[in-house]
Predict the structure.
Amino acid sequence: MKKLGVLFLIIFLWGWVGTGLTALVTISDLFFDLGTNYDTTDLDTQTSRFGLFDLDDYHYLTFNNVTDLNALTAGVTFSEEGHAIVQELQDLNQAAIADDENMVHQAAKDTNETPAGSWELTLTWSGLTGSIYQSTIGPFGTITKYVEYDPGAHFYLLLDTSPDANENSTASDPTDDTGFGPDTDTVQILEAELQSGYGCISYYPTSPNFTTSKWSLFSLKVISVIDNTTAPYLDSDSYDLSELVGKELLFSAMTSSSPGGQIIWGTDANGQLILKGQGEGTFRLQAAPEPATLLLVGSSLFLVGLVARKRMVKA
């Protein structure tokens, strides 16, 4: 499906409590050890060092007991499901690393190109709920709905050595997306739980499918990080990732559309209003100075990244 004006940005901010850090620390020397040599470029089982994950994402919102846009008022509740597949491992300059051990590239897979890839990374979340708490109208008639997410949803970063993720979803039925959840050949790299979250959805009432954008900011607590004694695992040369358990992170995401883009309104089988989005973006692992500054730092980085990452993918 051709993408026009699609923007999706994910930033992971790792909260470092009580360590006295005075500056934001970006983990730029991450690597995966697959335990198996999947490529022919060398004889090892590790990827090159990287700092960015480039993503192809998907999310799906259902507004409870609402059938049209005019009924989106304060107090309306919704549920949200979502996932993403990592397209590419990159350095901090957004250049692809030299050796990714033949990781799946979803764009190539979607167009039946080869090689298909030997392993894949997916990010998935479920059980996410929230409600609209405020509506505003901008100077040019743009309507913005501000939302608050309920705590408790879980987010997972998964590594699959038998690639099977498949983005086949449509606006009317998201259930034909497959292979994004845990299965027998999936290794859970990281799990985090939502502590709080806020976001907004903006659109022109006369042409919502052409002008919609969605932004979210989540505060998550790390529940677990895979032990790095048995491959496959994620690790860093300079940072002990296991120490992140119990720490806070921020996850920011934005998807926007222009005419023909990949974020659209519709209805489900029960006639309830839905909003489905699909886009691109990145995330990185970072250590923040202190919990009190997490929101400020995250918001600032989001705005900087928003300008830097905006891309138009033309038909």
